[in-house]
Target: Glutamate decarboxylase
Amino acid sequence: MIKTYSTPSNLFGYHPSNLSRLTSGKALRAGTLWKSYAPYYNPIFTRNGDGSFPRFRMPNQGMLPETAYKKVRDEVAQDGNVHLNLATFVTTWMEPSADRLYAESVNKNLIDKDAYPRTAAIEERCVRILADLWHSPSPHNTMGASTTGSSEACMLGGLALKRRWQNARKRQGKPIDRPNIVFSSAVQVVWKKFANYWDVEPRFVNINRERPYMDPEGVLASVDENTIGVVPTLGVTYTGLYEPVAEISKALDELQSRTGLDIPIHVDAASGGFIAPFLRPDLVWDFQLPRVKSINASGHKYGLVYPGIGWIIWREAEDLPEDLIFRVSYLGGNMPTFALSFSRPSAQVLLQYYNFLRLGKDGYYKVQKASQSVAQFLSKAIHDMEPFELFTDGSDLPVFSWRLKEGYTSNWNLYDLSRRLRSFGWQVPAYPLPPDMENVTVMRVVIRNGFSMNLAHLFLMNLIQAVSFLNSLDRPIPHDPKRDISFHH
Model:
């Protein structure tokens, strides 16, 4: 049956009879359909190049910059809303003045320190500020570096641990072929990558219901003379909990007094390194503990900078083996470097320094405290909801998690709730905990700077609506195990 249209024949300069040739029973491929409508699509703004283009090869001809911009922007229009993303730890909002600084400095290559000496000086200043914040005994003389994120910083910290262990074993005339490293089963995946990439045996201290983090007893059961280091996490990705760095350090001190084994600690403070100094200033976790030899943190998490910046700081200069440092002269000058990456924008380093100046310690406290207040408001509200049992409440990081009460329902689970919240635009992950708690599934919310109490109330309203809908079902939702995963870092 042929459709007819009553549109005036001169509207936008086309005649409807062309469109009326499309029949409801005629199957059209996307390309055919586009060609049928192309002459009439957005005619006021149409220009050469607005038509179709190859997806998986470079087009033969270019297009106007405005056209290319629109095509890329259209392509990502269906991406999630960053302001409703409660899965990611990564900063999604900065002030307009920071945006302006970003645009003005993104074309400077950070590695070219001879060409951009003032930028290099600011990077060095940030290292000193963080060394001081984390109580290095010699913040003006120790070693540190900016990185592309905490993953690179962890790799560098792990490499330094391995090289220090190898050098010590060589001096003692002992073999260096079987290094191991100890961390929690809830460790961030980068440490599993490190062990794999650099031929180090990973040893996991499994979490349990009573202690859902790496504990000293588990550490002592895992270490030996081949252990290059122990890596507690200050802000576990799964739950937001701080692992007990001071307790682990004390246990290793006692081990050394009994056996002579001197095992260093690297603290993965990807998230907590920019939270604990302000919200928990009395917590001892950093270089106040002599056994802590290095710390990494993500500037682009609670350091409040856009993605692309991490930091690694060593307690003292001698904690970074000299033979890991390279010196290059082909960019001008004689530049020492210890990194896995080379060329990258200066913008994020400058934004980190901007935040240090803009906020100061008092400002960082207020920003992080506001995020924690929102997290604890939401965690209490979810604790009071009948279906849920709170797992963590946001007392460490502004991150909380919860599980579905056992026996509450067989009609839906947290993966269903995660998908239902996605229909409102919210991205909230559900995932199983690591061994020995893989049978427990939790949901987790990360509160970041810019997530207001107003948005928290909106999220809570949508959560209640989602639960009410799921509770109204009279039969179980069919499940595909492949879809029952929504964890995001």
